[in-house]
Amino acid sequence: MAEIKVAVIGASGRMGSEAVRAVEAAEGLRLVGAYGSGDELGDLAGADVAVELTVPAASPGNVAHCVERGIHVVVGTTGWDEPRIAALRGQLDAAPPSSSGTGVGVLIAPNFAIGALLMMSFAAKAAPYFESVEVIELHHPNKVDAPSGTAARTAGLIGAARDHAGLPPVPDATTHDPDGARGAQLGGIRVHSVRLRGLVAHQEVLFGNAGEQLTIRHDSFERASFMPGVIAAVRAVADHPGLTVGLEKYLGLD
Ligand SMILES: NC(=O)C1=CN([C@@H]2O[C@H](COP(=O)(O)OP(=O)(O)OC[C@H]3O[C@@H](n4cnc5c(N)ncnc54)[C@H](OP(=O)(O)O)[C@@H]3O)[C@@H](O)[C@H]2O)C=CC1
Ligand SMILES: O=C(O)C1=N[C@H](C(=O)O)C[C@H](O)C1
Questions:
Q1: What is the pLDDT of residues 210-230, one digit of tens each?
Q2: Which residues are documented as binding site for (S)-2,3,4,5-tetrahydrodipicolinate?
Q3: Concatenated DSSP letters for 106-153?
Q4: Which residues pair with 201 in a beta bridge?
Q5: C-beta neighbour count of 87 within 10 angstroms
Q6: What predicted TM-score, i.e. pTM, was given to this entire model?
Q7: Ligand 2, residues 81, 119, 142, 150: which to mutate, most atoms within 8 A of Cβ?
Q8: How far is the C-alpha of 213 from the C-alpha of 36, rounded, in Å?
Q9: Which residues are annotated binding-site positions?
């Protein structure tokens, strides 16, 4: 198999620096470029695949830059809401082919950890069977976005599964909540964000019925937990032209 040339955008960040090390250690991958916020991306040093791990404000511009140049992109940065995704789909439809002649592939992966992918899959499977559900995500206090991309994705999957099953809205008698104590509401699902020194990335999905509760919890204790997913995505992205949301689609875990 031909060597894959990889560039990391956001290379000095917490995730980016870990991704640089993972790419350097991975067989069949060669790191050709590492970019920070002050760097000109240019042709990304001839990379076949860019790994994008920056901030929500910069990510769409970086991804557009890669797509325009026919470079496949693995995006771990969060903040990809529906309008951003729709704009990217439009750009991909009109994009030039990649250097290998296929359509450009872009993966938006809200979470690369295998356990987190399974947590989301289990949550979607459980969703039709419970009257109540809420999501609690817990992260390190340096995280700039809330709710987490994982929580937004989980809420989306649960909401879709409930709608498909014809479930009514989650019961909630709250009529007075001047300080927003009930958290954010994403597609009808309550999401609560905790920021706490000492944490990395954690999430609980709480399901309730009369007399019973199911809790699905995932913990990333180290950013190393994301790296097998990053490397698997780099290896697979060229084989998936167009836009894919969720690494589970590459791994058959959906
Ligand atoms: N999908 C997943 O599994 C995971 C996703 N994430 C997401 O990844 C993203 C990064 O997280 P994290 O590493 O913790 O954040 P950091 O703040 O540690 O790193 C962000 C990096 O992005 C760089 N940056 C900012 N703007 C640009 C730009 N325009 N071009 C290039 N680089 C830029 C910053 O560089 P500088 O310091 O020079 O400003 C910084 O090094 C977040 O959105 C986070 O939610 C995090 C963990 C797992
Ligand atoms: O910022 C983080 O740290 C993380 N971000 C992603 C998210 O917002 O879901 C993935 C993981 O939770 C870590």
A1: 999 999 999 999 999 999 999
A2: 140, 149-150
A3: EEE-S---HHHHHHHHHHHHHGGG-SEEEEEEEE-TT---SS-HHHHH
A4: 139, 220
A5: 13
A6: 0.96
A7: 150
A8: 45
A9: 10-15, 76-78, 109-112, 140, 149-150
What is the total residue count of the chain? 254
Catalytic residue list contains 72: no
Ligand 2: centre distance to CA 112 (Å):
9
CA distance 122 to 124: 5
Cβ 69 vs Cβ 195: under 8 Å: no
Checking ipTM against 0.95, whether it exceeds it is: yes
* pLDDT tens by residue, 69-115: 999 999 999 999 999 999 999 999 888 777 777 899 999 999 999 99
Q: Is 65 a catalytic residue?
A: no
